[in-house]
């Protein structure tokens, strides 16, 4: 799920950036530092959308670096148990398949793939129904339900299922 | 189930509901009686013991039945929307079915991904095999591995294939660090094939890894042919990055290996290889490797390869004083080299396994087939060794003796008329002279080793025992295990 929230961060800035563009420098450094990272509490920071407030800078003794407390608005993405996500399949193997929804890696085990879909090995491993009408392979887009999440300091792992109504392939790269 | 079919769907609905409720309550009380004991057992382990009474009765019913019931309910609810009682029941039922689908007590936790069960999503610690070659966080329990192995083997056998595990270094290719190259190899820099053209090329310079790699002659044909008969894995003691890079050179179109590349970083044990990560029954796996010791528990699956030393650094590493192939500006023969010989063996094994043993589907074992094929090589030879073993050494346990027996020859300690070959280092011994007098073959021990590596009886004339050459060192060169 995406959230638009306000976060705060203390930014250390080198004295060489002080000047007319201090604020711009601060913002671009913030973007570089924060976007794409992951925190256990909020999930992935997808994008910074605005700066709420830059607090008073505090000069550090000895180094000349200045610490600014910055409040910024950002879009974060955090998967939840029970959430329905759309994801792109990245790898298919005997144990199931891996899919990615943006930065989140999701594993769908073969226990959670409908029983009528069977694994086919070969140069393009895939899960296919017996009549061949539905196929999950690399680059397929699937709709899945998250049944478990673990959020690390830097990564988020999810377990997903497509064994439920209205879940499964939503776009097959081979047919388009 | 009878509920679904028996209860007439009418528009009034409320009567049906009464019936349904009655039936259902009956069913519940039945369950309660049946499962009284079980419930007590579970109650201690249940996390929600206070509300367990209701939940347990729900959980004891098959999921499908409950789902069906709730479907019926929904239909009826739609018909009799005004009935508020029905609404409540629908909600209860849906709740019950959702609680059953995530019921943790039924899950056996067959494996984990990022420390979560791959089936129920709960946080668990699973002990089992780490499939780090697929994803570093994947861990599959032993029972599940056995199940996967079983189903996978069946499907592979159905496609008339077996498994083949390939080693990289000294088996399919030879690599050296650029800094380890000797001046005589400088000419190689002019012969490098571009990495884009790895389908035909065989010599590559991987500057970003500071390496030069030479593929063994015939390897392209070998992989192409073998892929028709085998599911192929790469298993190397090199690190992951190196393994993937080599896989790219060998398999530029990614037809053969896919994610089936196992490297040192993935294996559990150092200095050893195991078939844990190979999803095939051991009775259907062949291994191609140049080192026997890394496969302590799968020697029977192993086809030992003669080491491929192209670069001088590789020869030095194994302590050979001779010039390497690169220094001699030569290479293994394309069509009579080790890979071509092994491919023939693989073809034979495959043929025997699927054609000659087609009727014994359940008992076929590739290890037995391999043994039979090997036993044919020196069939009918009766070998006597002369001054090959130290005099006090128990001859039967010498590796040459064992090797000869594995190759189908019979060994003897004394000469008699049935002997066909005398293996000796020195033509001056009594047995050697006897061989010459009686017109028997007199060969070097290399003859046996050669047969072992090339899987065929080599012409004896090529291994004459001469008195003037220092035979010891000659034998050493060809016998890395000695």
UniProtKB/TrEMBL annotation, chain A:
Gene3D superfamilies: Nucleic acid-binding proteins, RNA polymerase Rpb7-like, N-terminal domain. Residues 79-156 form the S1 motif domain. Keywords: DNA-directed RNA polymerase, Nucleus, Transcription. It is found in: Nucleus. It comes from the Eukaryota. Residues 8-64 form the RNA polymerase Rpb7-like N-terminal domain. SUPFAM superfamilies: N-terminal, heterodimerisation domain of RBP7 (RpoE), Nucleic acid-binding proteins. One of its GO terms (cellular component) is P-body. DNA-dependent RNA polymerase which catalyzes the transcription of DNA into RNA using the four ribonucleoside triphosphates as substrates. This is DNA-directed RNA polymerase subunit. The lineage of its organism: Eukaryota, Viridiplantae, Streptophyta, Embryophyta, Tracheophyta.
Automatic annotation (TrEMBL), chain B:
One of its GO terms (molecular function) is RNA polymerase II CTD heptapeptide repeat phosphatase activity. InterPro entries: BRCT_dom, BRCT_dom_sf, Fcp1, FCP1_dom, FCP1_euk, HAD-like_sf, HAD_sf. Residues 52-61 have a biased composition (Acidic residues). Its cofactor is Co(2+); Mn(2+); Mg(2+). Residues 1-70, 463-482 are annotated as: Disordered. The keyword RNA-binding applies. Residues 373-465 form the BRCT domain. One of its GO terms (biological process) is response to salt stress. PANTHER family: RNA POLYMERASE II CTD PHOSPHATASE (PTHR23081), RNA POLYMERASE II SUBUNIT A C-TERMINAL DOMAIN PHOSPHATASE (PTHR23081:SF36). NCBIfam families: FCP1_euk. This is RNA polymerase II C-terminal domain phosphatase-like. The lineage of its organism: Eukaryota, Viridiplantae, Streptophyta, Embryophyta, Tracheophyta.
């Amino acid at each position: 799920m995406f959230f638009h929230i306000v976060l705060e961060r203390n930014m250390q800035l080198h004295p060489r950036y002080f000047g007319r563009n201090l604020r711009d420098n601060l913002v671009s450094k913030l973007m570089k530092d924060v976007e794409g990272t992951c925190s256990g509490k909020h999930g992935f920071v997808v994008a910074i959308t605005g700066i709420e407030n830059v607090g008073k800078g505090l000069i550090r003794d000895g180094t000349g670096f200045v610490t600014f407390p910055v409040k910024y608005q950002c879009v974060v993405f955090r998967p939840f148990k029970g959430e329905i996500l759309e994801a792109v399949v990245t790898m298919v193997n005997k144990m199931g398949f891996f899919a990615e929804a943006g930065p989140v890696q999701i594993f769908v085990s073969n226990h959670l793939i409908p029983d009528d879909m069977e694994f086919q090995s070969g140069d393009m491993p895939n899960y296919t129904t017996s009549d061949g009408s539905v196929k999950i392979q690399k680059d397929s887009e699937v709709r899945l339900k998250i049944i478990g999440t673990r959020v690390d300091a830097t990564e988020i792992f999810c377990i997903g299922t497509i064994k439920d109504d209205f879940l499964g392939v939503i776009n097959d790269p081979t047919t388009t | 189930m009878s509920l679904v079919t028996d209860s007439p769907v009418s528009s009034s609905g409320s009567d049906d509901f009464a019936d349904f409720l009655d039936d259902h309550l009956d069913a519940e009380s039945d369950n309660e009686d049946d499962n009284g004991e079980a419930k007590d057992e579970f109650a201690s382990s249940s996390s929600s013991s206070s509300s367990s009474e209701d939940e347990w009765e729900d959980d004891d019913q098959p999921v499908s039945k409950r789902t069906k019931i709730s479907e019926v309910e929904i239909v009826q609810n739609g018909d009799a929307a005004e009935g508020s009682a029905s609404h409540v029941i629908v909600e209860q039922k849906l709740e019950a079915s959702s609680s059953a689908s995530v019921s943790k007590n039924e899950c056996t936790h067959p494996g984990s991904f990022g420390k979560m069960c791959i089936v129920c999503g709960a946080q668990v610690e699973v002990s089992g095999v780490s499939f780090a070659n697929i994803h570093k966080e994947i861990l599959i329990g032993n029972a599940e591995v056995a199940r996967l192995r079983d189903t996978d083997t069946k499907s592979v056998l159905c496609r008339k294939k077996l498994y083949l595990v390939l080693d990289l270094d000294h088996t399919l290719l030879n690599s050296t660090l650029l800094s380890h190259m000797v001046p005589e190899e400088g000419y190689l820099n002019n012969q490098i094939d571009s990495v884009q053209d790895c389908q035909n090329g065989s010599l590559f310079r991987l500057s970003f890894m500071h390496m030069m790699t030479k593929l063994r002659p015939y390897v392209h044909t070998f992989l192409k042919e073998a892929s028709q008969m085998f599911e192929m894995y790469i298993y190397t003691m090199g690190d992951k990055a190196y393994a993937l890079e080599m896989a790219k050179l060998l398999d530029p179109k990614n037809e053969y290996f896919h994610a089936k590349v196992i490297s040192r970083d993935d294996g559990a044990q150092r200095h050893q290889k195991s078939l844990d990560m190979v999803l095939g029954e051991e009775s259907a796996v062949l291994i191609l490797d140049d080192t026997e010791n890394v496969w302590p528990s799968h020697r029977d699956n192993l086809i030992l390869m003669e080491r491929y030393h192209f670069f001088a650094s590789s020869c030095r590493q194994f302590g050979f004083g001779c010039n390497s192939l690169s220094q001699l500006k030569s290479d293994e023969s394309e069509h009579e080299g080790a890979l071509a010989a092994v491919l023939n063996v693989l073809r034979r094994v495959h043929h025997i396994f699927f054609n000659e043993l087609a009727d014994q589907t359940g008992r076929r074992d590739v290890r037995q087939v391999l043994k039979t094929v090997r036993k044919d090589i020196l069939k009918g030879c009766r070998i006597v060794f002369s001054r090959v073993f130290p005099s006090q050494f128990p001859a039967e346990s010498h590796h040459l003796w064992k090797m000869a027996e594995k190759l189908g020859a019979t060994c003897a300690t004394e000469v008699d008329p049935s002997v066909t070959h005398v293996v000796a280092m020195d033509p001056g011994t009594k047995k050697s002279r006897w061989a010459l007098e009686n017109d028997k073959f007199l060969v070097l021990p290399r003859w046996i080793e050669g047969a072992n590596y090339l899987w065929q009886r080599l012409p004896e004339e090529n291994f004459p025992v001469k008195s003037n050459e220092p035979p010891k060192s000659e034998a050493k060169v060809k016998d890395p295990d000695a």
